[in-house]
Request: fold
Amino acid sequence: MSPSRSVDVAQAYTVRLVQHLVVPTFVLNPRRQVVIWNRACERLTGVRASEIIGTNEHWRAFYETKRYCLADLVALGRPDKLATLYSEHAVPEDGLGFSAENWCVMPRLGNQLYLAIDAGPVHDEDGKLIAVVETLRDMTDQKRAEAALKTLAASDGLTGLANRRSFDQTLAMEWARAERTKKPLSLVLVDVDHFKLYNDLHGHQKGDECLRAVASIIGETALRPADLSARYGGEEFTIIMPETDQRAAVKVAERLRSTLAKLQLKHGAAGAGPLVTFSIGIATRAPDETVSADWLLMRADEALYAAKHTGRNRVVCADDVLAALAKAGAGRDYRMAASNEESLLAKGR
Reply:
């Protein structure tokens, strides 16, 4: 067999081998045209080899708008594009090829897949690029399971809102971000009025139903993606509102109260009103180096205290605490408690 014939046989064998791989694989030539699109790749993408071989249209199998695939970046020698195009990516120590992960639109299938992608160059004996091989792994189920576990770990089991741990992490993060942007951060604390009396009268099962109902109102009221609604503990809830001034926070709080009123949740316990209501405290601050996120939480708690001790079923802002309590005749006790709390907070910093 002549040398040229041996090469042809070897190439044909290689093509056949790749075609029968169970791993979705395609191969580009140096001009970034598809020369192999194996059967596993057809099954993964819904795109037949006959549609794609000899073209530069391989991106259409994965995305709705034209963009580079990982094999293109290898062929072009463009590692600088990785961070822009892929949420997760890596370059091996030897610098040969790239690895990446991201969500792909998969237009032909009509649903998104999370793919782990590896692309590597093939060189001839002189070091000249002759092909780029890209392999794909469908990690959609694993990625969704990870996301579900992450959501579960950050969620309150009863209400489905963010839990206390998630609240603490988000408050610290948003406070730090607000320090950089110099934009106001608002914190809304919500308490279900006379909830212990509700539990005593209606039982814990009804109490849980009540908490789920009010949590639904709170979760739906914080509509912006950046806002976080959380169960702070027991019958207390909170909303973190980045880049929100006091006036906007008050509007959200009053909307909470009115939405709950329309729900007409029966209370009826002695010492409480006929319906379930909210007391709400609000604190707002554009952070600086003189205070911490704990200060904002303390101020919101003071405002909630004032709302509860001046008649409940109302919204009080931190700036109005003294006036509200003085009007109700509780100002002196509050000032003594606040002074002690601020002293403890200062010692803790």
